[in-house]
Amino acid sequence: MKKIILLFAVIFAVNLGLAQDEIVGKWKTIDDATGKAKSIVEIYKKGDKYYGKIVQLLTEENKDGVCRTCEGKYKDKNIIGLNILKDLEYDADDKEWEDGTIMDPKNAKEYSVYLQLVEPDKLKVRGYIGFSLIGRTQYWYRVK
After folding, report:
1. Annotated domain spans of the chain
2. What is the DSSP string of 24-85?
3. What is the average per-residue pLDDT within 16-23?
4. Helix, strand, coil: what percent of the chain each, to 5?
């Protein structure tokens, strides 16, 4: 009986670890205004937290990769390699990645964010100020 309980505990722990890492990989972002693919963001895990950086631009705008519309320290900096998702943690109860920030590369402003996998290849990205009710949702699609 102890072996069966131990086996189930190991299986549960392995599945929990796999669930946490489901968002790791490359995701295509979609422009809210045009509905066209905008960039590829690579989400990766470092320690217990998740981060995302822009690895490719897909539009003619900013094709050279320089953020001319950014403010502050990001003005005229390269967008490729820019970490736009920071410090996300997996919440197993809600099955979301939360308590992190997302930076809008258009203006370099940071917002609170949570991510939720709504389908195996579709990621809900909700950026907000204060409460998650006041914000904007995008859907990103896994790049295979």
Report:
1. 23-142
2. -EEEEEE-TTT-SEEEEEEEEEETTEEEEEEEEE-SSTTTT-B-SS--GGGTT-B-TT-EEE
3. 66
4. 15, 50, 35
Q: How far is CA 11 from the centre of its chain?
A: 27
- Is 68's pLDDT higher than 90? no
Q: Which residues pair with 23 in a beta bridge?
A: none
pTM more than 0.90: no
Sign of the CA dihedral running 92, 43, 40, 137? positive
What are the tens digits of pLDDT across the range 78-113?
A: 889 999 999 999 999 999 999 999 998 878 889 999
Give residue for tokens 């995701």: 27
Q: Does domain 23-142 have CATH number 2.40.128.520?
A: yes
SS3 assignment, position 91 = strand
The first and second tokens of residue 45, run together, are 């895990």
Residue from 50, 112, 40, 35 nearest 79 by CA: 40
